[in-house]
Specification:
The protein is α+β, with helices and mostly antiparallel strands. The chain has one domain: GTP cyclohydrolase I, C-terminal domain/NADPH-dependent 7-cyano-7-deazaguanine reductase, N-terminal domain (GTP Cyclohydrolase I, domain 2), CATH 3.30.1130. The chain has two helices and six strands. The strands form two sheets. It has a four-stranded antiparallel β-sheet with strand order 2-3-5-6, with helices on one face. A two-stranded antiparallel ribbon has the order 1-4. Strand 5 and strand 6 form a beta hairpin. The protein is globular. 19% of the residues are buried.
Length: 129
């Protein structure tokens, strides 16, 4: 398994572009550095998206996420940067990134950033018992 980080996000062709469906990816080991103190910040990222023509390849996503381990970034900035990079790579119908940062100085931070394609309208989902 390579240990080199990589900022390149790879994609593959959506196998079912005719259907809206949601891909959910939980990333429980995200780390970056506090830009003020240099101390590590830990977070769980939850990526949810409705693909259009492309899906993100998971190994490239893992290496991309690892690339933040030595970068200093504010929570709000890093969450939006990751979302921007994923939107650029995948061009989804809808994408939401939730970053739940662990406690630091008695404070928990959760940042939620979303992207919606201008022409996409969400289909209503069924709520099953």
């Amino acid at each position: 398994m390579p240990t080199q980080t990589n900022q390149a996000l790879e994609t593959f062709t959506n196998p079912n572009p005719e259907r809206d469906y949601t891909v959910r990816i939980r990333i429980p080991e995200f780390t970056c550095l506090c830009p003020k103190t240099g101390q590590p910040d830990f977070a769980t990222l939850i990526l949810e998206y409705v693909p259009d023509t492309k899906c993100v390849e998971l190994k490239s996503l893992k290496l991309y996420i690892w690339s933040y381990r030595e970068q200093g970034a504010f929570h709000e900035s890093v969450t939006n940067q990751i979302l921007n990079d994923l939107v650029t790579a995948v061009a989804p119908r809808f994408m939401r990134l939730t970053a739940r940062f662990n406690v630091r100085g008695g404070l928990y931070t959760t940042v939620v950033a979303e992207h919606r394609a201008p022409d996409w309208i969400a289909t209503s989902s069924e709520h099953l018992p």
